[in-house]
Design brief:
The protein is of the alpha+beta class. The protein is built from 14 helices and twelve strands. The protein folds into two domains: about 190 residues, no CATH class; about 210 residues, no CATH class. Helix 4 packs across helix 9 and helix 10 crosses helix 12.
Length: about 425
């Protein structure tokens, strides 16, 4: 251990001397490693942030939820898209019929429409515009999964009676009342109607699919249907089905939903489905290709920089070997083995590339801090990417330094001593 410790210390001192004595040459060589590590790790950090955001967004809309809609989320290359235009939208009556056919103890089945409001929602002199209304059935809270800051969701009786109760998203409640929890049990006015606030949702934050409930007003579908347009493509109606128990066979559930919807719509055996069964897993599958392309791009950009830097590091090491030929001769004369000489120069090469890699990581951290305020995507340097940068730096040092180190270990001690 003492020998290894001395060897590392000696290699570090020699690497430092090489950097100090050949500042410009060393800087240009390390620049390649720095740029390469910076490029690769920055791209991978963005990919990690994007994957995390997509995963969280998928979880927010329901990781195991099946959506019955007019339009599919994934299109085939040659499918005649105009056929989708002829499809009917899922309806409240179809939800009622499907719910009868499904076991309520095993499945949550909800019907919802999205209405982008053109009117303000008001409380005293405060008003909020540009928000979304989700008119939904009672089961929405079971399927979507929502968390309350204060209050509750509307009950079955409130839904069935079409009562004027609403649940406010965090941002809307904050803009109207200052403190979101103060909205509870107060009345807001929308479209000339007074609505009692029975619940306020916890803040979810933005996500990549814009499915956050922070700027949403939830109201019973039967109440919204009294004075709002709840039919047509513009409100994007959908039926969502979620297993409420574990170990449900997803393929079997999809097959059953397909069969039930065909029966409800009276489709003949040879007729095509006029509805789509969408799953959140499709989103993750469709984005895998994008992540692969981005990863390849990161490796290509960073790979060229690292390759160039490897030649530069090799050049530094060859020069270092040439400048220390006499010292190598003395070391061999005093009993130093070939392995000792090889490791001495190899460690020096690794230290040089590690310095470049650490600078690249530092630049990555700085870049993230600069970029983060201007994008909605949350990105952070992970331990795995730090380890990746260190491993790439070490591997580059070994590859670029092996040949010079090997040539140094093979020098004849007598011939080397003549250089003294």
């Amino acid at each position: 251990m003492a020998l290894i410790s001395w060897l590392l210390q000696e290699a570090f001192v020699l690497a430092k001397n090489s950097l100090v004595s050949n500042k410009v040459r060393s800087l240009l060589s390390l620049l390649g490693v720095t740029i390469g590590i910076f490029s690769v790790i920055l791209v991978f950090t963005f990919i990690d942030g994007l994957e995390r955001s997509i995963r969280e967004s998928v979880q927010s809309i329901g990781g195991n939820v099946i959506y019955i809609q007019k339009w599919p989320w994934a299109f085939g290359e040659d499918y005649p898209w105009w056929k989708y235009l002829e499809r009917p939208q899922p309806s409240y009556d179809e939800w009622t019929e499907l719910k009868k056919r499904m076991d309520e103890d095993k499945y949550g089945v909800t019907f919802s429409v999205n209405i982008f409001s053109s009117s303000d929602i008001k409380y005293n002199k405060q008003a909020v515009s540009d928000f979304r209304i989700i008119a939904c059935t009672y089961e929405f809270s079971k399927v979507r999964g929502i968390n309350f800051l204060a209050g509750r969701y509307f009950s079955t009786s409130e839904f069935n009676q079409g009562q004027n109760v609403v649940v406010l998203g965090y941002t809307i409640a904050k803009n109207l009342f200052g403190e979101p929890s103060l909205a509870l049990n107060n009345e807001v006015v929308y479209n000339g109607r007074k609505l009692k606030v029975i619940g306020v949702l916890k803040q979810e934050g933005k996500n990549i699919f814009n499915s956050s409930l922070d700027e949403v007003v939830l109201m019973p579908y039967l109440f919204a249907a009294k004075f709002l347009t709840v039919k047509g493509d513009e409100v994007n109606p959908y039926i969502a089905v979620k297993p409420l128990v574990e170990n449900i066979n997803e393929d079997a559930l999809i097959s059953r939903l397909k069969m039930e919807m065909r029966k409800i719509r009276g489709l003949k055996p040879r007729e095509e489905d006029n509805f789509a069964l969408n799953q959140s897993s499709l989103i993750e599958q469709n984005t895998k290709g994008l992540f692969s392309v981005l990863s390849i791009a990161g490796w290509i950009i960073g790979g060229f920089a690292i390759l160039v830097s490897a030649f530069g590091i090799a050049n530094i090491m060859f020069v270092s070997v040439k400048e220390r030929v006499s010292i190598i001769g003395v070391q061999k004369a005093l009993g130093a083995t070939k392995l000792f000489i090889l490791l001495q120069f190899l460690i020096e090469s690794v230290i040089l590339t590690l310095i470049g890699g650490l600078i690249g990581l530092l630049l990555t951290v700085i870049a993230i801090e600069i970029i983060q305020p201007y994008i909605d995507l949350k990105i952070q340097l992970s331990i795995s990417n730090v380890l990746l940068a260190i491993n790439i730096s070490i591997l580059t040092g070994i590859v670029s330094g092996f040949v010079p180190a090997y040539s140094a270990s093979q020098l004849d001690p007598v011939e080397s001593m003549r250089e003294v």
